[in-house]
Design brief:
about 160 residues; alpha/beta; five-stranded mixed sheet; two-stranded parallel sheet; 3 helices; 7 strands; about 25% strand
Amino acid sequence: MNKVPMTVLGEQRLREELGRLKSEARPRVISAIAEAREHGDLKENAEYHAAREEQGFIEGRIKEIESKLSAAQVIDVTKMPKSEKVIFGVTVGLLNLDSDEEVRYQIVGEDEADIKSSKISVTSPIARALIGKEEGDVVLVRTPGGEVEYEISDVQYI
């Protein structure tokens, strides 16, 4: 099985969600199914069918999270030797050479990506262009809107 890179925070969030699903959501839906069964005829019982549908979703999500965690390769950049090199998990400052706009991104696993939180997937075009480069390097990124040149202003192992 291929290992999937994940940050420490990403793993922690998945484990918390798994815990909530197993300790709260699963027991709640089981009791909802039992209560709906007490109402009689299951063919026309909307509460029963809704609870069964929710149960299917919860069980599917539990399996999905367990699968992701079993394939995860958790990478803690705070415990790695610091350098100017861009690797998975670092936070990188970029200067757009066309617009002089500065942006900062953390390179994370696919499930952790959230552009609103400045977290980009390791498989995104920007991250793929940055991996292996160092502070001061100029990187050409091909985006749907065209090519953009960025200068790597800093790399933080936080």
